[in-house]
Specification:
Blueprint (H helix, E strand, L loop, with lengths): L1 H14 L2 E3 L8 E3 L5 E3 L6 E3 L3 H8 L8 H17 L7 H28 L7 H18 L3 H15 L2
Antiparallel strand pairs: 1-4, 2-3
Length: about 160
């Protein structure tokens, strides 16, 4: 497992080139008094991959997995907006690969956070998000055809949550 996590971290580190909010989901997007969008809870911002916040926005706190087609449409839109803003072009296929890698890391982190919030802080409403995080990790990892040890463990966690 350590080898697989190190490999994932090293590869994601090679994509780190932008400032990431790192908790970019709907609950942290607010409208002010003039109906302008404001982003809150940005104290954990760090340099990361261009896919990080998109993964967070599309996949945090889900209870049903979005279709691969939905995610592909959102990735293409993200890349189109980047181009419109004059940001460096990212190849669509390469970005899909980066997105899948980032999904593994971000959704495992989210599963850990949701587990901690549920078990330690007694915020049990987070339980509903744990199994979907494992399911999306499994799907992304299977599409990458890598990280067999991680996928084996995640598959066991999915089965455990399915039997409850």
């Amino acid at each position: 497992m350590s080898t697989e996590f190190a490999e994932l971290a090293d590869e994601l580190g090679s994509y780190a080139s932008v400032l990431c909010h790192r908790d970019f989901h709907a609950a942290n997007l607010m409208l002010d008094g003039q109906n302008k969008m404001r982003i809150i809870d940005h104290q954990d911002a760090r340099i990361g991959s261009p896919a990080y916040d998109l993964v967070s926005l599309l996949l945090d706190r889900i209870t049903e997995l979005p279709s691969p087609e939905f995610l592909a449409i959102k990735r293409r839109y993200f890349l189109d907006v980047r181009r419109t803003l004059g940001l460096p072009k990212i190849d669509e296929g390469e970005f899909a690969y980066e997105f899948r890698l980032q999904t593994l890391q971000r959704c495992l982190k989210a599963a850990g956070t949701f587990s901690y919030q549920s078990a330690v802080r007694q915020k049990t409403y987070f339980v509903q998000y744990i199994q979907p995080m494992f399911r999306i990790v499994f799907r992304s990892g299977s599409n990458l055809d890598r990280f067999p040890n991680l996928l084996r463990i995640v598959e066991k966690e999915i089965a455990k949550y399915s039997s409850n």
